[in-house]
Structure formats: structure tokens, C-alpha cells
Amino acid sequence: MRGRLLEFMTGVLFITILSSVLSLLLPEDMEMEFLPIIKIAMGIWIIHSITAFFGHSLF
Amino acid sequence: MIPMIESIIGTVLSSFIVVIISTFMVLVLDFLFPSYSRWTRMFLFFIVLTVVLLPAFEHLQIIRSITQTIATMFISIYPLLTASILASGGSFSMLNFQPAMLLFANGAVILADKILIPLLSAAMLFDIVSRFHPAVPFTKMADLLRTTLLGLVSALVAAYSIFITAGGTISWALNGVTSEPIKELIRQNVPLIGSFMTDSLGAIGRYSSGASVFIGAWLIVTIWSVALLPTMKTLLTGFLYRWTAAIIEPFANEEITGLLDDIGKTLFVLCAVSFLVAFAFIYTALFTVILVKLITVAK
Fold first, then answer.
1. So what's the pLDDT on residue B177?
2. Which residues of chain A approach chain B closer than 8 Å at the C-beta?
3. Helix ranges, chain B (H)
4. How far is residue A34's CA from residue B44's CA, in Å, rounded to a whole number?
């Protein structure tokens, strides 16, 4: 359980840092267009983690 | 007591002063260069994280090392204890020894080490992520983790207290007349864990006052200070986090104050966890004391 938690947290941290760095570098008006992509990435990661936790694989 | 408080405040307060000053500097920078406000916000966040996270994770590690020590102590003392029960026969029956309590304490220590600490650090990370990137919030998850852990710990300690009182090992209850106003004060002023804290303190007091029949008061004082010192440290640090958040709230970003507040809340839950651990430690010490007493009486 601990390894899974660590993996999940690492992924969440990675997505957060990556997306915030990207949104800093992008111009301000593009940030709103960029936001749904971040949300999709986070959603995919969460669903993947849940399915992996119960022994299935999303991809 | 006073030097201890001074040393804690000295180590933690310096980092909080850094937070306060850097928040103010960012305020000035934002006023001078409004177009760079996104960058200054990011830099402020990183400064606050590097300065503030260290004391919090230090406390997590302190509690973890204490639980590991206690688990080792329990495992090492258990064969000795059973052997002494067998050897001393009837003289121990008046103590009404309960193995279930020992099992309980050990289970609590393992629970704290394997589940509580990782989940608490996960809650802390969730808080940071949701403050760092407000578009992708994890606040509900962090809150859920905290409240679940708190419920788990308080249920365990309640069961502990039932074991103590219903077991009837020691029936000398602490006289509640003097401590009642202090209890009420703590209960009203410490959110979330106040009532739980005073209850567990009362249970520790009941148990240790009974044991003072066997041993001198100095040992009880030692046990109290050794077991409760990390807890008090954690509680004080949590208060300092919330205090800093309260001070910088008028002129800082909402994210920074919210982050400090959340870390303070997490440290309060950690304080509850270390109360549980302090319980286990006191049981260990008392069992050791009774064992030593038994050996000397048998001679």
C-alpha cells in the first residue's frame, strides 16, 4: 500500500510542478486554454492509479 | 520546562520570521513591478515551502523514531514479563495483569508507524499541491485523510481508557477538583483534539498516580516528561504555524496563509498520534517498574 501511495503522490507532484512551470512560461491568455489539458492529465493519472490499486490496468 | 519552550520557539520562530519578511518583500516587489506578479508568487511559494516544511517533517520523523523505539521495547520486555509472572505466581494476581492491553499498545504503535505517518505526510502533500495549483484542488482528500486518522486515533484511545477503567488494575482516580478548570480551558481553546487531549491526559494521570504507590514520584515525573515532551513540542509547533498564518493574513496571499494553516492542522493531528504513542510508552515504563518491584520483593 505504501509503495502505491508513494507512486501516486509522486505522479501528482510531478503533474503539478510541470503544469505550473508551463503556465508560468506560457502567455497569460493561453493559460485558460491550457487548464483543461492539466485537468485531463490529472484525471487520467487518478483513474489509472485507482485501477492499478485494484489490480487492473488502464493501459 | 521554560528552556524547552525557549529552544522550540528559537528553532521554529527563526524560519517563521523568514516567512514573514519574505512575504513583505514580495508585497513590495509586487508594488514596484506589477507585471512580474506571477513569478514573485511562485518564488514566494518556494521560499515558504523550503523554510516551513522542514520543521513539520522533522516532527513526523521524531514521532516515527519514537514509535519504533517503543515497539522494540515492547517486544524485548514481553518474554521477561511473562517469565516473571510465572515465577512470582500469586503475588502478581493482585495486579490483575491484562495481556490484551499489551497487545493493544503494540498494535497502536504498529498502526502509528505503518499507516498514520504515511497518510499524514500524504495529507500534507495534498494540501501543498492544492494550494500550489488552485485549479487542481485536493482539499477534500486532505480533509478526509485528516479526519479519518483523527477518528481512528481517538477511537483507539477511547478503547484504551475503557481497558484501564474497566480492568480495575488501579482504582485510585486522580482528584478532579484541581485539574477541572485547566481541562475546560484546553478543551475550549484547542480545536479538534482538545477534549480528546484532556481525556487522555486524565487517563495517564489516573494510571501513573496508581503506580506512584509502587515507586517514587520522581520516576513518574521522568516518565511524564520523556513521553509527553515530543507531544508538547508538536503541539507548540502547530500553534506557531497557525500563529504565523494569523499574523501575515492581512498582507499575504491567501495561498500562503492557507498553506500554513493546513500544516498547523496536520501537526495537531500528529500531536494526537503522538499522544497515543505516549500512552504506549507509559505502559511500557510502568510494566518495567512493576517488574523490577516484583523481583526485589521476591528476594
1. 41
2. 2, 5, 9, 12-13, 15-16, 19-20, 24, 28, 35, 38-39, 42
3. 2-32, 37-88, 99-111, 117-132, 139-167, 176-189, 194-211, 217-248, 254-298
4. 23
Shortest distance between the Cα of B71 and any Cα of chain A, in A, equals 20
- Distance, in Å, from the CA atom of B265 to the CA atom of B267, rounded to the nearest integer, reads 5
C-alpha cell at position B109: 504503535
Average pLDDT over residues B107-134: 83
- Are B129 and A12 a contacting pair at CB < 8 A? yes
pLDDT one-digit tens code per residue, B25-53: 998 998 998 888 888 888 888 888 888 88
Write the CB contacts of B96 (distance below 8 Å, at least 6 apart in sequence).
B167, B168, B169
Residues in chain A within 8 Å Cβ distance of B41: none
Nearest-angstrom CA–CA distance, B20 and B243: 11
Please indicate whether, in this complex, the C-beta atoms of B136 and A19 are within 8 angstroms of each other: yes
The ipTM assigned to this model is 0.83
Q: What pLDDT sits at residue B94?
A: 44
